[in-house]
């Protein structure tokens, strides 16, 4: 087939990555630039354009027929705009139109980064084979996405499943989003570290005060580090259980840097989930670590592009049908 690839973009506050991806999820050509997040809107767009130009220089570019974008959010897929919290210059930035222009008018599909990760894990990762799934990215923030009835469910604006801003503490701290007691305000990496420090946890000789360092202390038995991760796990469990109760999901897949803590996070999470997922139809809920790693954004953006392409076509490919 002459047109059997999609182009994928993964746009975050640190890097802008691109790839040409085939219908089995293989990344055939890659390009990447740092995100000039503190520069102006056009500087960031130039970095995107440079990534696309590198992909277009490949002899395989002519086989691409759709572009999928997974972007840090909020995104508005209905308007084709993005307003990433970690890219201050982009507020209501018309990314879809600009990428379409930079690729010679190819169709463009936009989803949030949590939805992209979900698409990747459902296509090729830990949620494969599950018809109803919640996938979470727990890192600097907490994002997520949903698969319902075997289909990716991004919602009208591409933000459905954004579990980080479910309230799990009615009188909790004010979140940067403006609400109180959000999952993100309790379970994100910076907040795990903040809470441990506030409780008297002391970093090691290297001065590392990140959530990863807190996790290392928890493994060594530090009670304040253990308590901070237990509180994060409790917040995640409450949010997951609420989602499962509403949507009857079968599995919750957790990725992102905080998930790298392993059983320091997953053991108290499973324990807390038993306290919140109590109804008969959610007790079976499985919790698993994500497996797609740093390529999840690109694979997920490609998955969204393949699904969109199949939706507008006639007979679906087996790969695209698995994404619907």
Automatic annotation (TrEMBL):
EC number: 2.7.1.2
UniProt-listed Pfam families: ROK (PF00480)
Keywords: Kinase, Transferase
Domain of life: Bacteria
Listed InterPro entries: ATPase_NBD, ROK, ROK_cs
Molecular function via GO: glucokinase activity
Keyword Transferase included in the entry's annotation: yes
Family: Belongs to the ROK (NagC/XylR) family.
Protein name per its UniProtKB record: Glucokinase
The organism of origin for this protein: Streptomyces fulvorobeus
């Amino acid at each position: 087939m002459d047109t059997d690839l999609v182009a994928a973009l993964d746009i975050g506050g640190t890097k802008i990555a691109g790839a040409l991806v085939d219908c089995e999820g293989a990344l055939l050509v890659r390009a990447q630039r740092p995100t000039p997040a503190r520069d102006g809107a056009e500087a960031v767009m130039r970095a995107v354009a440079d990534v696309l130009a590198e992909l277009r220089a490949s002899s395989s570019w002519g086989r691409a027929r759709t572009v999928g974008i997974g972007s840090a959010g909020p995104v508005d897929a209905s308007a084709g705009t993005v307003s990433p919290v970690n890219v201050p210059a982009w507020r209501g930035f018309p990314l879809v139109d600009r990428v379409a222009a930079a690729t010679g008018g190819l169709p463009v599909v936009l989803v949030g980064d949590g939805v992209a990760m979900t698409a990747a894990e459902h296509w090729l990762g830990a949620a494969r084979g599950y018809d109803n799934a919640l996938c979470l990215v727990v890192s600097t923030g907490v994002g997520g996405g949903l698969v319902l009835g075997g289909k990716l469910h991004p919602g009208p604006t591409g933000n459905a499943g954004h579990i980080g801003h479910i309230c799990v503490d009615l009188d909790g701290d004010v979140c940067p989003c403006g609400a109180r007691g959000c999952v993100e305000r309790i379970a994100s990496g910076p907040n795990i570290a903040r809470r441990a420090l506030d409780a008297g946890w002391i970093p090691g000789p290297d001065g590392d005060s990140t959530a990863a360092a807190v996790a290392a202390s928890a493994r060594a038995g530090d009670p304040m580090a253990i308590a901070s991760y237990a509180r994060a796990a409790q917040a995640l469990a409450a949010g997951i259980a609420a989602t499962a109760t509403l949507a009857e999901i079968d599995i919750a897949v957790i990725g992102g840097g905080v998930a790298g803590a392993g059983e320091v996070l997953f053991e108290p999470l499973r324990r807390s989930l038993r306290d919140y997922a109590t109804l008969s139809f959610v007790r079976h809920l499985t919790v698993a670590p994500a497996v797609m790693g740093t390529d999840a954004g690109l694979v997920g953006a490609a998955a969204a592009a393949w699904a969109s392409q199949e939706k507008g076509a006639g007979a679906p490919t087996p790969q695209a049908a698995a994404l619907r």
